Amino acid sequence: MDSRTTFDTYTARNRRQTFREVPCPPSTPFTSAALKAAPAPRPENPPAPFGDLSQAEVVDLCGMALDILPGQSGSSAEQRRAGIRMLFHHLATLPGTTWQERWEASGFNDVNAPSVTVLGRPEVRYHSSCLASALKMAFALRIIQPSVPGFRANTFTDYAEPFRIIQNDPRLDEFFAMVDAQSHLHLVHRRRAKFDLTCALTTQGIALEHLTPSALLHYALENKRLGLTPGATNNTTRFAALAAWEILHRMGHFPPGTAPTLRTFIYNGQSTVEELVDRYRIRNAGVRQLLIDYLIRRRADSDYITIEALSRNLASLFWATVERINPSQQDLALSSEVYDQWRAELQYQQRDRTKLRKGAASILLAVRGLYVDLHSWAITEPERWAQWVAPCPIMPRDLKGFGKRSREINRRMANRTRVRQPLLPVLVQHVEARYEHLASLLEAATPVPLGSPSCTRDAATAVPTPGMTGAGQPSSPTRLFGSSTTSPARPFT
């Protein structure tokens, strides 16, 4: 087996890559592996690579623009100085005695905050890059500690490397070197690991030695809550700092006993019945408890997926909707007006009122089952269920044609299988040819040192592209199965 990469098998939804096994150093600044998401406490001596600049004069900050990043061109430093004058002269007009207080009063630190580039003149193109460069310097020098949304409202072409240089932290240098050594990781993922770590340190105002597992978990969950996870635009299962966590674990930065992956603390397994019901914020405490008791009783003869779907049908699509229609409803005895309005609401999707709901009959059956079960259970346990017994508002005519609709659904599912089954060999042939093509390119490129010119043109011409006919027309099954092409990955900025 190739020693460079090792893969474990997971479900398609949670597939991930395993880092190479390397011995973990025993040293760690933390003593406990107990974990609860929380930002890192402010250290007694906050990091200040160039000293305390919380009240520095603008002219002094402009003078530092040449010193903080040695080796950069004079034009880059002058651009940074111009941005410093625009940004800090604006902040100086706001209330506060420190730059941090003025930053928090500026509105640039809030949720959905605008970028600082709004301070530039729209007709002057370079103002945006000047302001972004100045803000990068303010963050890296620890003049300003932004919130996660305040940081992510701005786009930096490169933040991690200048941050590392300015901090002059050997432990941070070690982390960057270890990230670069993960040759099996794509360049995009290596850059993202560096960005996640430096963003976490910046937004929490700490050095790497103070970054606890709880603080990094808090950063990941905060990005998820705010919808700011890098690369998660169309992927709701992605979290920030996954690679950074695993590399820090390999470095021995986390205490013994800490899980090697961040996902261990993200996925908590099955929810309790109370948690399933409380997702939908039912206001009536009596009905809430009734639904909890009912689902607990039904759980004995149902699996988790069934109980989860039943909780959604009863708590969200039924009772939460009834409460919106009639906030004063206290029991299950619905009036004909409330029932008719609920049936009308049920015909459309909750998120898109222009789309008809295809599975409305299954919701009616779940609600009808609730009423019927309460009638039956009240005979043997009247002290527990009798107070909730009420006439079922769902009439038999409301379910007319349910069997026919169920058979139609099964027919459509079977028809999709029949249509796609003959095309399976075509898909397998395309995937195998594509794999062999990419494997040959990887084999040809592996001996070439990183950064040196490669014979990509020769390799591309030597290996025929799969899925192309002699006339140059694609023979891949993308027209049959939908587009399978993906845009090339771009590094996070």
Report, as a whole number of angstroms, the end-to-end distance: 35 Å
Kindly estimate the percentage of residues that lie in beta strands according to DSSP: under 5%
Mean pLDDT: 82
Apparent shape: extended
Largest sheet: none
Range of helix content: 40-55%
Helix and strand succession? HHHHHHHHHHHHHHHHHHHHH
The count of DSSP E runs of length 2 or more, i.e. the number of strands, is 0
* Regions with little confidence, pLDDT below 50 for 5+ residues: 1-27, 29-34, 456-463, 465-493
Q: Please report the number of helical segments.
A: 21
The secondary-structure class comes to mainly alpha
Radius of gyration: 30 Å
Description:
The structure is a single chain. With 493 residues, the protein is mostly helical. Helix content is 51%, strand content 0%. Helix 1 packs antiparallel against helix 2, helix 6 (160-167) packs across helix 8 (187-204) and helix 13 runs antiparallel to helix 14. It is extended and about 85 Å long. The chain starts with 57 loop residues before the first helix and ends in a 12-residue tail after the last helix.
